Hints:
Oligomer: single chain
Bound molecules: nicotinamide-adenine-dinucleotide
Distance between the termini: 37 Å
Order of helices and strands: EHEEHEHHEHEEHEEEHEEHEHH
CATH topology of the domain at 4-178 and 221-245 and 285-298: Rossmann fold
Strand order of the largest sheet: 3-2-1-4-5-6-11
Helix content: 25-40%
Largest sheet: 7 strands, parallel
Strand content: 15-25%
CATH architecture of the domain at 4-178 and 221-245 and 285-298: 3-Layer(aba) Sandwich
Amino acid sequence: MTPVFLVTGAAGFIGSHSVEWLLRHGWRVVGVDNLRTGRLDNLADARSSPNFTLVIADAGDETAMRPLFQQHRFTGMLHLAALVSVPESFREPELNYRLNLATADTLARLCLEFECKRLVFASSAAVYGANAALPNRESALPQPLSPYAAAKLAAEVMLLGYAASYGLEAVCLRYFNVYGPRQDPGSPYSGVLSIFTDRFQRGLPVTVYGDGEQTRDFISVRDVAEYNGQALTRQDVVVGRYNVCTGHAISLKQVLAIYRELFPNAPPTEFASGRIGDIRHSLGDPALLREMLQFSAQTEFAQGLRELNAG
Length: 311
Ligand SMILES: NC(=O)c1ccc[n+]([C@@H]2O[C@H](COP(=O)([O-])OP(=O)(O)OC[C@H]3O[C@@H](n4cnc5c(N)ncnc54)[C@H](O)[C@@H]3O)[C@@H](O)[C@H]2O)c1
């Protein structure tokens, strides 16, 4: 019998690409999503596969989730469902606690009860905060600066505690700035590249907050799906927390130069004052995960950006 994997947040940006990776590699997948920020459209391809089942439910609702664990006896779970907006976590700390921490606990306990051994958790580079020592390494002392980051860190600690206590194979992946098709450009706090792409394609000016010299470690969602899939399905994965990043820093000015090549007639960029809470530089060290999986991010940034704007 082909093993079955559970993916929460399946209809989201990273979720839908991760589901496709698992299906492509011959696994069966049950996706759970409540469509809070995800979209059914994202799963158009996946839903045509006989190996995919979508369940519309709240991943933190134990009553809804228990029968799924009972029925499918999952081999592993990729837990992506979350409140994903940092500003929303400031406005709604209680909801942030429920969606980003309590839900992880509920699911981890169901994993233990139903012998779903592997739990891959979507953490975030946000746990590092404005940590001065770059590149961020997993051994750095985390300094969360938002309720979102705090809940991600707390969930990591809890899952690793369950690993030590009960043998749960918890793998916490700290994603840096993920970009690619299907990222929602809907709010000013969405991934910056999804907003840039949306506005350049519509011939609208983009706004850069600050001087444009701020840097990010952008990683393609295609590489993130590969990391997720491998972390979920490989036998030789070791419990722990791992950066998911490229190890290359790119400034917004460099990003804009690539857009200008792609959209030579675009209106001039507008600059506004920097936003409170925005980190100036973000860069991760990918070595730990690279050594464990013998794989590193494949998509070169300029190429990934061209593909994003072509599609
Ligand atoms: N995109 C990034 O750059 C990035 C960076 C760091 C961490 N992350 C983390 O990766 C994960 C996926 O993020 P994304 O960018 O794909 O966002 P997304 O909003 O596209 O995906 C999140 C999905 O979870 C679903 N969801 C939310 N709460 C749910 C619940 N209670 N029950 C069921 N489904 C629920 C949403 O409907 C959505 O489909 C999140 O945990 C996020 O915190 C993303």
